[in-house]
């Protein structure tokens, strides 16, 4: 594959990622509950909901972003009343992030709708393509995990 072919494929991957994000996050339940959230903020909310009582560092690692980036996102979501911060009992200087209790049901619905849409997409792709996706996903996560470990070293 030539460099030009690789760049064209890279452009196509960027377009596909954007299309997937727009479609998956386009099924949000209620604009008043989730006013103009970014895709990354939605991922943060879903991650915090899954791992309630997560530290900023753990959240950054789970999302593959810097702690500074996560701190900024958490601050905005705290101001919007969507997450809470509380002292970390095992680290005096640290905090734990939790989803605001009044949003648990709405975030559960958001996650179910997003996952339902993705399952429907997998059904349309068929079992062979779904298996290829699974293998590609595992390989990409492995490579990105290696890159994350290198940058943390």
Task: Output the keywords.
mainly alpha; 68% helix; 153 residues; 6 helices; three-stranded antiparallel beta sheet
Describe this structure as you would to a colleague.
It is a single chain. With 153 residues, the protein is mainly alpha-helical. The protein has one domain: Orthogonal Bundle (Arc Repressor Mutant, subunit A), CATH 1.10.10. Helix content is 68%, strand content 11%. It has helices at residues 3-25, 39-50, 56-63, 67-79, 104-125, 127-152, and strands at 54-55, 83-88, 91-99. The chain has a 3-stranded antiparallel beta sheet with strand order 1-3-2. Strand 2 (83-88) and strand 3 (91-99) form a beta hairpin. Helix 3 (56-63) packs across helix 4 (67-79).
How many helices? 6
Helix content: 55-70%
Order of helices and strands: HHEHHEEHH
* Strand line-up across the major sheet: 1-3-2
User: What oligomeric state is this?
Assistant: single chain
Within CATH, the superfamily carries the name Winged helix-like DNA-binding domain superfamily/Winged helix DNA-binding domain
- Which structural class best describes the helix and strand composition? mainly alpha
* Molecular shape: globular
Largest sheet: 3 strands, antiparallel
Alpha-carbon Rg, integer: 18 Å
Give the CA-CA distance, first to last residue: 32 Å
Count all strands and give the number: 3
User: CATH topology, what is it called?
Assistant: Arc Repressor Mutant, subunit A
Poorly predicted regions:
none
- CATH architecture type: Orthogonal Bundle
Name of the top-level CATH class: Mainly Alpha
Tally of distinct domains: 1
**Arithmetic mean of pLDDT:** 85
- Strand-residue fraction? 5-15%
């Amino acid at each position: 594959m030539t460099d030009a072919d690789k760049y064209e494929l890279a452009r196509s991957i960027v377009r596909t990622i954007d299309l997937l994000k727009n479609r998956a996050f386009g099924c949000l339940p209620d604009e008043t509950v989730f006013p103009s959230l970014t895709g990354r903020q939605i991922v943060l909310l879903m991650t915090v909901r899954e791992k309630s009582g997560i530290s900023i560092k753990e959240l950054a690692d789970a999302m593959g972003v810097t702690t500074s980036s996560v701190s900024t996102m958490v601050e905005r979501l705290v101001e919007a009343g969507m997450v809470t911060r509380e002292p970390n009992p095992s680290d005096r200087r640290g905090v734990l992030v939790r989803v605001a209790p009044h949003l648990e049901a709405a975030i559960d619905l958001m996650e179910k709708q997003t996952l339902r849409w993705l399952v429907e997409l997998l059904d349309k792709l068929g079992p062979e393509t779904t298996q290829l996706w699974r293998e590609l996903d595992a390989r990409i996560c492995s490579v990105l995990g290696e890159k994350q470990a290198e940058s943390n070293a």
